[in-house]
Amino acid sequence: MRFEEAVNIVLGGGKYLHDSSKGEIKGGLVAVMFNEDSNITGILSRLNQMGVYLALNNAPNNVIIGGTYDMIKSAIDYIRGEGLVARPISKIEGPFHTVYVKESADQVIPLLTSTHFSDAVIPVYANTSAQEIIHAEQFRAESYKQMFMPVK
User: Fold this and answer.
1) Mean pLDDT lowest for which of 3-12, 128-137, 141-150?
2) C-alpha pair distances (Å), 19 with each of 42, 45, 82
């Protein structure tokens, strides 16, 4: 795509995400550090039941979770009770890369639909799957999904 089109999508998506964080969905993200012995899969499953979701597979032994402020407070208590480190990310104003911002992502669909994407000459790794993509439609779909799905 042309640079100007990419900027248009980023600005549009950013505006919708910013607007959602100022509306009903007030939340944020929390960094969770764990070790190889931690039952992180079980902990993430329990967090999902609490309404807090994986936002980023950030690095080995580190994930980022997101949710509304009330849910995050309970999640931090739970995580620390499991012996893990949980640190809120103070400069983040919303539960990005989670289902809470899907409505904002849906608002970007017209921008994505009207933008011309080309197939890539060199494969690109998708944010949500970490799989190589090369086709224009894959880029359009990935640009949408990465707003509300966990990033790898």
Assistant:
1) 3-12
2) 33, 29, 34
The secondary structure of 80-146 as a DSSP string is: HHTT-EEEE-TT--S-TTSGGGHHHHHHHHHHHHHS-----SS-EE-TTT--EE-SHHHHHHHHHHT
pLDDT tens by residue, 41-95: 999 999 999 999 999 998 889 999 999 988 999 999 999 999 999 999 977 778 8
Distance between CA atoms of 45 and 136, rounded to whole angstroms? Answer: 34
**Euclidean distance between CA atoms 33 and 103, whole angstroms:** 29
Q: CA 148 to CA 25: how far, in whole Å?
A: 13
CA distance 91 to 76: 17
How distant is the alpha carbon of residue 89 from its chain centre?
A: 14
User: Please, are residues 103 and 144 in contact by the beta-carbon 8 Å criterion?
Assistant: no
Question: pTM of the full predicted structure?
Answer: 0.85
Cα 110 to chain centroid distance, Å, stands at: 20
Q: How far is 113 from 42, CA to CA, in rounded Å?
A: 38
